[in-house]
Specification:
alpha/beta; Rossmann fold; nine-stranded mixed β-sheet; 9 strands; globular
Length: about 250
């Protein structure tokens, strides 16, 4: 369903029964990113990620770009792609153009040139399905730009033990699991940056590209049998029964 907002733009609301919205999604990341604007962990991470998104997306070209989640972090602000959208899973954001689940995107296959995931994999109830959808909707050579939390870090371990440093409800999608999933989906990891100790030890930033496998066809001539006249007249000579050489 498409409705017209007060500014005259179109907002798209997808029926959960149609695209399969998953229940029990993790809480929104925005309150954590906005906490402690005077120097809180969330605000610092937001600034760290914003700088890297701005740098990464400005040299990625195409026609369509999509950000999934975290509307307060504007990952496409510096993108040169003309058509850019923000998608969230609930109607709580006035900035969003699309309300849909990241694990069931209402896009055809191979239609988006760029997808950004600002901590989306850590905050979604089914991160593997999110990556499946991203791989499906990306065009060949399209890119996915991601920020996330590191499981094997002081932040990650303390979060596992019950610390309140990271967002409530976050389920960290480890880098090892991410690399495996990207490889299985045909997404080649182009760059990976991990935050430095101690300020940003628990975060990472990554860019991956959808690979196009160049298959070189085998020439038809390679399948042809050799011509009869090119074969030796007697490839298996009959041994001389007397064991005698030529006279």
């Amino acid at each position: 369903m498409v409705t017209r907002d007060k500014d005259g733009g179109d907002k798209v609301f997808m029926n959960g029964q149609i695209i399969g919205l998953a229940p029990g999604l993790a809480p929104s990341l925005d309150p954590w990113l906005e906490q402690g604007l005077g120097g809180g962990v969330g605000a610092k991470v937001k600034g760290w990620a914003q700088t890297r998104f701005d740098h990464a997306v400005q040299d990625i070209f195409g026609y369509h770009a999509l950000q999934l989640g975290a509307p307060t972090l504007q990952s496409l602000a510096q993108s040169r792609i003309a058509h850019r959208w923000l998608a969230v899973d609930t109607g709580s954001s006035h900035q969003a153009a699309l309300f849909a689940n990241a694990s069931a995107l209402p896009f055809f296959e191979s239609t988006l040139d760029l997808v950004t995931l600002p901590f989306t994999l850590d905050m979604h109830s089914d991160p593997d399905a999110v990556l499946d959808e991203v791989a499906r909707v990306l065009v060949p050579e399209g890119r996915v730009v991601m920020a996330g939390f590191r499981a094997m870090s002081y932040w990650g371990v303390s979060h596992f033990l019950g610390s309140k440093r990271l967002p409530e409800g976050a389920k960290i999608y480890s880098l090892r699991r991410l690399k495996t999933s990207l490889s299985e989906l045909g997404l080649m990891l182009e760059s990976l940056e991990c935050g430095q100790w101690p300020s940003f030890h628990g975060v990472y930033f990554a860019v991956a590209r959808k690979r196009v496998l160049n298959v070189r066809p085998i020439r038809r001539a390679a399948w042809k049998l050799p011509k009869l006249d090119s074969l030796p007249l007697n490839p298996f000579p009959t041994p001389n029964p007397r064991g005698l050489g030529k006279q």
